[in-house]
Amino acid sequence: MKLREMLESCYRRLERCFGGGGRNGGDRLLWHMDLKPHASGDYSIAVVQANSSLEDQSQVFTSPSATYVGVYDGHGGPEASRFITNHLFPFLHKFTSEQGGLSAEVIRKAFDATEEEFLHLVKRSWLARPQIASVGSCCLVGAISNDVLYVANLGDSRVVLGRRVSDGRTSYSTPVVAERLSTDHNVGVEEVRKEVEALHPDDSHIVVYTRGVWRIKGIIQVSRSIGDIYLKKPEFNRDPLFQQFGLPVPLRRAVMSAEPSILIRKLRPQDLFLIFASDGLWEQLSDEAAVELVLKNPRVGIAKRLVRAAIQEAARKRELRYDDIKRIEKGVRRHFHDDITVIVIYLDHQQGTPNVRSRDHCMVDCTSAPVDIFSFNADEVDNTPHTFP
């Protein structure tokens, strides 16, 4: 084989492993992995970066017996979402092994342990980096094991199920509906706002409408997260060291929590696919629009298609085109849309039947999106094999 053919062959293999690489229609801030197998079907991932440092992180763990999905939408910096990527799944595996299987209690313990470990990190870093107390992340996790779906959530990332309407004679002509499976912990939702107010009857300013949205203490929209220690541990907020970096917020007690909402659902033949995404997607597309797009398009690259649809909608709102948006640098681009992460999980083989193709690959696999899309794509361009004459 000629040198050029060898190099191109290697590059194609890398593309298949790590995603679409630089072939993203000229969008240097977009990364995608078009399609991979898991035990119950296929999955697709795409991420677009808008912030100066990517604050969204995501991962999919697959094995013959289980599939785990994680979407972590950070705020105040990338540290919390990156921390969750490295710690939550190991805790899930540890507690699942100790308890003899997955359960709501196992998931709660994994979330609690991740929160506790992040608190330890904040304490260790406090003197050198007091601002780390203001970093946090939403945390959405899905787990499929023995044909049972577990969904756990903190914050306003969301999972939506595409499901055929059951009429006793399900067929390809049967309508497909969007069913939201997670709870948005965002005080923009009246029910969540009332929940927070009921927990703080002695604080008439616990939720404030400012800068066009409802916020807890005028600061943050989500009511549950990993991190945000300064809003959970008043002693950090009162420390003069922290007040050099942020406005003091008078707190009597914690105003946020790390207690996840958990849903457990037996998967049914009518359940077609799951869309896990950070709120960057849902700010632009309705649940129904996202499900319809997945239903009507090929599987390969479906997550990328959803991300692009969201960006096109963000562009339309500003009377721009997607081509205009993708030329905007990271950081500045945040003024037009948020970081967006999408993972689509197809559900093909219920009743405990593993995906045959998954047995042709590694028995255990974990795919994580790059820590920073801009840096990843820049490195890939630098390392792309040249075509020799």
Automatic annotation (TrEMBL):
E.C. no: 3.1.3.16
Extent of the signal sequence: none
EC class of the enzyme, as a word: hydrolase
Pfam families according to UniProt: PP2C
Metal-binding keyword on record: yes
Keyword hit for Lipid metabolism: no
SUPFAM superfamilies membership: PP2C-like
Catalyzed reaction equations: O-phospho-L-seryl-[protein] + H2O = L-seryl-[protein] + phosphate; O-phospho-L-threonyl-[protein] + H2O = L-threonyl-[protein] + phosphate
Entry coiled-coil feature ranges: none
Keyword line: Hydrolase, Magnesium, Manganese, Metal-binding, Protein phosphatase
Co-factor(s): Mn(2+); Mg(2+)
Gene Ontology molecular function: metal ion binding; protein serine/threonine phosphatase activity
Taxonomic superkingdom: Eukaryota
PPM-type phosphatase domain residues: 42-347
Sequence similarity: Belongs to the PP2C family.
Name this protein carries in UniProt: protein-serine/threonine phosphatase
Organism encoding this protein: Nyssa sinensis
